[in-house]
């Protein structure tokens, strides 16, 4: 470890640096309306953005030598889990109110308010509940 200078900032040797991915992902110069949930931006304006550490504006799995080792696994499991949930459940809120997507204040991000969904009666949905050991209460 040596002293170095990054973008004009002097970083003494042995400094522990934290990269604030949250701020990077809310940079308005890159992301228009950064607080809006607009997944379609990844099909249009940002369709060429790579999440595997090549675009420093978009680093959910970080970048470089210490980036996430589970990135390939995570991307596949996330897709499978989401697809299974959508396939197995009719997703609705209690009285069709919109979902509160505000974030809780933690080191890692959690929803500020719990997501309450109505259970589906499909066999696939029940099997999924059992496999994932979800507790959806009695709704
Ligand atoms: C959506 C899911 C995931 C996200 C967003 C994610 C994100 C990250 C990030 C940002 C880091 C870097 C932390 C740092 O800078 O110190 C990291 C590290 C790491 N992740 Fe993940 N991760 C995910 C899932 C997984 C999974 C499923 C595995 C394993 C199967 C995994 C294994 C690791 C390991 C071993 C490291 C440490 C790498 C190192 O320090 O050399 N991650 N992850």
Automatic annotation (TrEMBL):
This is Cytochrome P450. GO terms for molecular function: heme binding; iron ion binding; monooxygenase activity; oxidoreductase activity, acting on paired donors, with incorporation or reduction of molecular oxygen. It comes from the Eukaryota. It comes from Dipteronia sinensis. Its cofactor is heme. SUPFAM superfamilies: Cytochrome P450. Belongs to the cytochrome P450 family. InterPro entries: Cyt_P450, Cyt_P450_E_grp-I, Cyt_P450_sf, Plant_Cytochrome_P450_Monoox. Keywords: Heme, Iron, Membrane, Metal-binding, Monooxygenase, Oxidoreductase, Transmembrane, Transmembrane helix. Heme binds at residue 68. It holds the Pfam family p450. It is found in: Membrane. One of its GO terms (cellular component) is membrane. Gene3D superfamilies: Cytochrome P450.
């Amino acid at each position: 470890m040596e002293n170095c200078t990054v973008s004009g900032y002097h970083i003494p040797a042995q400094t522990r640096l934290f990269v604030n991915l949250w701020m990077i992902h809310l940079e308005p110069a890159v992301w228009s309306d950064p607080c809006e949930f607009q997944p379609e931006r990844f099909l249009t304006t940002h369709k060429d953005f790579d999440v595997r550490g090549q675009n420093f504006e978009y680093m959910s799995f970080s970048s470089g030598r210490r980036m996430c080792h589970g990135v390939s696994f995570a991307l596949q499991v996330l897709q499978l889990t989401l697809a299974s949930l959508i396939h197995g459940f009719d997703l609705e809120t209690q009285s069709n109110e919109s979902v509160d997507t505000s974030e809780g204040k933690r080191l890692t991000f959690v929803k500020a308010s719990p997501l309450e969904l109505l259970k589906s009666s499909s066999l696939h949905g029940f099997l999924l509940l059992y496999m994932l050991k979800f507790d959806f209460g009695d709704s």
